[in-house]
Design a protein that fits this description.
single chain, about 350 residues, alpha+beta, Beta-lactamase, 2 domains, about 35% helix
Length: about 350
């Protein structure tokens, strides 16, 4: 005789009804799971339940199927340079702060007082130049030089030059009047220009940096060696800046006046400080009495590794270049990058990861 699970007799407890219903549902679901598991379809296999895979679902109107389902994007694997030698002690350098970073991975390779605030002098012009590039000026347009003649000897107030000429003079010869005249030429008040410099610094993550003028002559243009490495990296991303800071010399021509020849202030680029780097990728100097001798530069070795070097507060003009060279050479020789495996190493020395 058949039995109706839902049949309720007079006086029967209704809770029995719900227990029957729940039991029936659980039984049906359990039976379904057993059947599916024993047939082991790919999309319910144990391997699938422990991994995210791409599943193909048939689509009406198509032969075969399309790819769908979850896509797992793994984070990039950063393989760091490995220290295999010994780096020089901080006492070997006169600079108050030194910082060396691997350009590709961002790994710090050497640091001395790298987070200590320090006046940066004309390194400030890197940030001024980034702000100028944002305005996309007409480089063929002309403007009149402003600024006291005591600021530098490259040009005189009242001279007329193209913005391109001023740009080259500011970054190659580190002319204060040139950068002031460029900032004035884009019709921004000085206060607004400096505010944009500070805003740009915050955008780049330069948390310990503040600017008060576009030239770097103020000792209140403050940054750290760590922040300057960020500034240099961003500067060298800009094609126009990269091309300009790689020029070893420049001739400033003005109608009716004698040509003025400028050499780059970067003595590593000029080779006036002997070095064996594969390439000097550009940099910037800075000096005021309050800062001592500053220098930042990007350097590449023969294997293609690029490092960012910052030297702040060296004792002498020449020392900033010598100390930048010496710490860079020490880093290149004391670290081994993952791709530094020659054919001679194969089968004898495993690559260092």
């Amino acid at each position: 005789m058949s039995h109706n699970f839902l049949d309720i007799r007079p006086g029967q407890d209704r809770s029995n009804l719900w227990r029957n219903v729940v039991g029936l549902i659980v039984g049906i679901v359990g039976l379904g799971v057993v059947v599916l598991w024993t047939t082991s379809p790919r999309w319910l296999s144990a391997s699938f339940l422990t991994q995210k895979k791409t599943i193909e679902f048939p689509v009406a109107g198509f032969r075969g199927g399309i790819t769908g389902g979850d896509i797992v994007v793994l984070p990039p694997i950063v393989v760091q340079p490995k220290l295999i030698g010994e780096l020089p002690p901080e006492s070997d350098f006169t600079a108050q702060a030194i910082f060396v970073k691997d350009e590709e991975t961002g790994i710090v390779l050497y640091a001395k007082n790298s987070y200590t605030p320090h006046p940066i002098a004309s390194i400030t012009k890197l940030m001024s130049s980034l702000v100028l590039l944002e305005k996309q000026p007409d480089w063929s347009a002309t403007t009149t030089v402003i600024g006291a003649d005591s600021l530098d000897s490259h040009m005189y107030a009242g001279d007329v030059y193209t913005l391109e000429q001023l740009w080259n003079t500011a970054l190659i010869g580190s002319s204060n009047k040139a950068i002031l005249s460029l900032a004035h030429a884009i019709d921004w008040p000085n206060e607004a220009f400096v505010e944009r410099m500070n805003q740009k610094a915050r955008e780049l993550g330069m948390a310990d940096t503040s600017f008060t003028d576009p030239t770097g002559l103020d000792d209140t243009d403050i940054s750290t060696a760590s922040d300057i490495a960020m500034l240099l990296r961003e500067s060298l991303k800009q094609e126009k800046m990269r091309e300009t800071v790689l020029k070893s010399e420049y001739t400033l021509t003005n109608l009716g006046q004698k040509d003025h020849h400028l050499w780059s202030t970067n003595w590593l680029l000029l080779g006036w400080i002997p070095n064996h780097f594969e390439k000097v990728l550009g940099g910037k100097t800075g000096y005021i009495p309050a800062s001592g001798y500053n220098f930042t530069v990007a350097l590449r070795d023969e294997r293609g590794h690029t490092i960012l070097v910052v030297v702040l507060g060296a004792d002498t003009h020449e020392a900033r270049f010598v100390e930048a060279r010496d710490i860079a050479e020490a880093v290149f020789s004391s670290y081994r990058w993952p791709d530094d495996v020659s054919l001679d190493d194969v089968g004898t020395t495993p690559p260092l990861l």
